[in-house]
């Protein structure tokens, strides 16, 4: 596939990255880019190749997108966040309070089929896949050091990447019982709306379960199967997301900020903030 088949997938964004380097190879392209703080980025991504993209540094207070194949995401973006967009599937996105360094690799559908014996790829996002995050980070390091990627090294990484996607995320890789546990979108929306409205106060998992008429245990399992996070992790991420938005708008006392988004102590807030965003609130503010 020609380089032109990959090159334009980022052109439909409202603003461009301040730094961007590209290494093109016969069946794809690897990109590394950095964006300084930007209040809002909107637009779409569309490629004739499968795209695997990850946040290396920084992130966004809120990253919302929907793909043509029906996948939706709405949450914080932080170091280690990884997403996959299948070829010829458009992603319409909105980023709020974004400052990051990211990497992405495009693989032609033909090469992916050859590497996986015809496996299909689906859209998803995750913050729990250390392998994908580390692979993108390692490729970015080599490109930064050498200005290019060694073909033999790249071939090995592509093989590992394709097999990982096939085994971990391919169709049928989850037990039927786990698939049945998933909550429908309207239930997830009701839960998210309630949490956002109650962020400054106490939020009990039992209350969330009652909103959709489930037992506490069933709700906990179904919520995790649907989102990849426990209810508490989800609540804390929304609280941190709100805190990042407030920090981006104006200087705020860290203790006051912690209490305003529902944390019981500044110390706990700082610990959760660092786990989600990758730095302390004071460090984020200094950026």
Automatic annotation (TrEMBL):
Database matches in InterPro entries: AraC_XylS_family_regulators, Homeodomain-like_sf, HTH_AraC, HTH_AraC-typ_CS, Tscrpt_reg_AraC-type_HTH
Keyword Flavoprotein: no
PROSITE patterns given in the database record: HTH_ARAC_FAMILY_1 (PS00041), HTH_ARAC_FAMILY_2 (PS01124)
One family name in Pfam for this protein: HTH_18
A single MF term (Gene Ontology): sequence-specific DNA binding
Span of domain HTH araC/xylS-type: 189-287
Keywords: DNA-binding, Transcription, Transcription regulation
PANTHER family associated with the record: ARAC SUBFAMILY, HTH-TYPE TRANSCRIPTIONAL ACTIVATOR RHAS-RELATED
Name of this chain's protein: AraC family transcriptional regulator
Species per Swiss-Prot/TrEMBL record: Rhizobium sullae (Rhizobium hedysari)
The organism's taxonomic lineage, starting at the top: Bacteria, Pseudomonadati, Pseudomonadota, Alphaproteobacteria, Hyphomicrobiales
């Amino acid at each position: 596939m020609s380089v032109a088949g990959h090159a334009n997938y980022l052109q439909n964004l409202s603003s461009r990255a301040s730094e961007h380097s590209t290494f093109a190879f016969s069946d794809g392209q690897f990109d590394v880019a950095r964006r300084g703080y930007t209040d809002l980025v909107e637009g779409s991504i569309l490629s004739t190749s499968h795209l695997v993209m990850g946040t290396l540094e920084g992130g966004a207070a809120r990253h919302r997108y929907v793909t043509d194949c029906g996948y939706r995401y709405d949450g914080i973006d932080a170091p280690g966040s990884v997403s996959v967009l299948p070829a010829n599937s458009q992603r319409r996105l909105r980023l709020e309070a974004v400052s990051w360094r990211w990497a992405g690799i495009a693989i032609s559908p033909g090469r992916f089929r050859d590497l996986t014996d015809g496996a299909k790829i689906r859209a998803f996002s995750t913050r729990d896949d250390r392998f994908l995050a580390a692979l993108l980070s390692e490729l970015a390091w080599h490109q930064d050091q050498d200005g290019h990627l060694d073909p033999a090294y790249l071939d090995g990484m592509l093989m590992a990447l394709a097999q990982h996607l096939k085994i971990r995320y391919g169709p049928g890789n989850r037990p039927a019982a786990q698939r049945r546990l998933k909550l429908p979108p309207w239930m997830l929306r009701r839960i998210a709306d309630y949490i956002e409205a109650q962020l400054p106060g106490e939020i009990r998992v039992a209350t969330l379960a009652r909103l959709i008429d489930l037992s506490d245990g069933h709700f906990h399992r179904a919520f995790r199967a649907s989102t990849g996070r426990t209810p508490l992790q989800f609540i804390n991420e929304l609280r941190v997301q709100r805190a990042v938005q407030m920090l981006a708008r104006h200087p705020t006392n860290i203790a006051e900020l912690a209490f305003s988004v529902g944390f019981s102590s500044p110390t706990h807030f700082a610990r959760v903030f660092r786990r989600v965003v990758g730095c302390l609130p004071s460090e984020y503010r200094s950026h």
